[in-house]
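The protein record quoted for completeness.
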Amino acid sequence: MLPEYKRILYATDLSESARMALRHAVSLANCHGAAMTILHVVPDLVELMSGDAGFDIESHFSRAEWETINATATTRAKEKARERVREMASECVTDNPRCPVSGAELKIQTGDPAERILAEIQTGNYDLVVMGAHGRGTFMDMLLGSVANKVVRLSPVPVLTVRLPVEKATG
């Protein structure tokens, strides 16, 4: 028996490999008559800045100050991400009145990308996840970990990872 895909989760980090993955997600959704959900996760900005700066930013501001900073920055980041996702999705809109991108549910969340994607898989009743993969290589993935690697290892449903063709990835 061949698999049937009725609900596809497309997870994007807005990269070029994610753009390529979107085309695969749309093609599969068209072929299977599947509904699509588009998910982009915005990292928690205070955590991100603390990690990049090498010290705990939260300790330099009052709780109310950093919550305000984080909320404002997160709201802006989510708005920008929503615009970028819509722009990417518009590139894949087909003439089909039931185009999966046109009817896709768009979710912009905040937090650790792999954890949020895995949580969405658990709650969304998906049959397939489609996402881009940067392909730094096994050694780098082992050292740094990668969102795609973690999702592939822990997802209860199949995950299609899409890489850029070699000529685009290197140049």
User: Anything to note?
Assistant: Strands lie at 7-12, 35-42, 105-110, 128-132, 159-162. The longest strand covers residues 35-42. The two ends are 41 Å apart (CA to CA).
